[in-house]
Amino acid sequence: MIESLQAENKALKDENAELSQKVEWLMEQLRLLKKKQFGTSSEQGKGQLDGQLSFLFNEAEAYTAPPGVQKTTQVAAHTRKQSGSVKDVVPETIPVEVVEHRLSEEERVCPQCGELMREIGTEARETLKLIPAKAILRRDVYYTYACENCEKNDVSTPIMKAPKEPSVIPGSFASAQAIAHNQIGAQRSGSDLERRGKEAG
User: Fold this and answer.
1) CA-to-CA distance for 136 and 138, rounded, in angstroms?
2) Average pLDDT for residues 57-63, to the nearest whole number?
3) H helix runs in 116-190, sequence order
């Protein structure tokens, strides 16, 4: 009797493991189908952006430029792949305006020991500014600071960053000027408003 119960228990465990694998496979298939149906298409997004910016640049260059090689950024203990860089879409000939965001000396005082914190790094966000008949790539550089004194004395080292100005559209490199320019152009032509009216019903 014990042997039959053990055999039945083993059979049930095997069946459970097999069913768990099937469920896992089906969930993965469901996730992939949802991503395919509802996920964003990087080709579509790039095509839309190329279409919107083609009035500024040579259309042949915009549509035949090879996609940029995916760059990697080394960060402390891992490597992060950059995606959707503005450099992949905007020609290299556009001038770059660099705006640096630093903390004042009063803001860089270590909250733990009172020493002046040193600069340890930067973060950059790029937005495309459109000035009628002129485009400028603005690079906002945000500095990061750490306290050398706390670091030397094996105290938990506080890190401070210059406050970031929020993006107009999170995750986008379009500036307020670029969005406004695009909307004004669409309203002047009337085609975009007509399409929106049809979509609204």
Assistant:
1) 6
2) 46
3) 148-152, 176-189
